[in-house]
Amino acid sequence: MAPIRVMLVDDSILFLGAMKQAIEKEPNLVVAGTAANGVEALEKVGVFRPNVIVCDVQMPKMSGIEFVKALLQRHKIPVVVISGTPGVTLSALASGAVDFIPKPAAGEPKDAFFKRMLNTIRTAAAANVGAKIAVTHSPAHHAVGMLTGAPKDVVVAIGASTGGTDAIAAVVRDLPADFPPTLVTQHMPAGFTAMYAERLDRECKMTVKEAKDGDRLVKGRILLAAGDHHLRLRKDAQGYFASSRTGEKVNGHMPSVDVLFDSVAELAGPRSVGVILTGMGGDGAEGLVKMRRAGAYTIGQDRETSVVYGMPMMAFNKGGVVKQLPLHEIPDNLIAHLNKLR
After folding, report:
1. CA 259, 253, 72, 92: dihedral to nearest 10 degrees?
2. Whole-angstrom Cα distance, residue 50 to residue 9?
């Protein structure tokens, strides 16, 4: 199999050299070329013919966000941005970048950062850029059916990874303000989830907040798993609440979708709905199987609209998916299912 051709775009010669050195140690990766800024990268991309582009966000002449927008008008090449600023990162993802790599944290070993970078490059190489462009350019809002009578004790759980920031927004943005309490796990590091929750809160009819340990589940609220914390459903005499705690990674992730789905299967069972969206790997697949076995209604995103058809494919292949749907059909399907519950 031909190696993945990577183009690096960064104005720091030292950082560019370090990334290049790390990539060239890998047998299935090759550096196709480098550029010091977005303008130069646009001129060279046709010559280098990369499979993936890794791009800094803050650069002279043209920012990484401007570069992503300009590139995708001409080429369907997956772009991974490097950034330490949550707001800028989310803007880059909304502009068409398929994934991001947080800049090295203070004291983080270089090897750990480069391992994350290499894994992200491999994931990006499998991305469906057409699906990413489609969701990026889809209408900000669209009408969904009316919720006429969902029971009070229903819980909705959603999980996603690569491509998930857009996909989650597409699902929850237009859900009605009286929609059942919803728990969401998106693979995202600490420092980024709070900003993402705030952005969703501005866009949604429901309220959205980063989950805190002990938060009560209430109608019309979405709780988003905090970075470096597992989100679980818990229950006491007063009803459902969220557990948000650190621990060991599960399937290589914290937060983990499996952790969320497992807890929902155990406590809410047939009074729950599980949705698994775009993402690499299998996190959430076993949990969705458990939810379905417990009587939950489960939805998996289809291949055509997934940026990475990994997590939903694994869930489907394991028998965890009741209904497989394109992204834009999921909100109405949720409403239709809830309206039938009594």
Report:
1. 90
2. 12
Q: Is 283 a catalytic residue?
A: yes
Whether 91 is catalytic: no
pLDDT at position 119? 95
Tokens of 18: 């370090």
From 83, 91, 95, 161, the catalytic residue: 161
Of residues 216, 209, 148, the one with CA closest to residue 184: 209
* Residue 187 known to be catalytic: yes
Has residue 137 got a pLDDT over 80?
no
Q: From the candidates 174, 283, 302, 306, give the one annotated as an active-site residue.
A: 283
- Record the tokens describing residue 13, joined without a space: 């010669």
Give the pLDDT confidence of 142-200 residue by residue, as tens digits: 767 788 877 789 999 999 999 999 999 999 999 999 999 999 999 999 989 999 999 99
Q: Name the residue type at position 307.
A: V
Q: Which of 166, 187, 230, 244 is catalytic?
A: 187
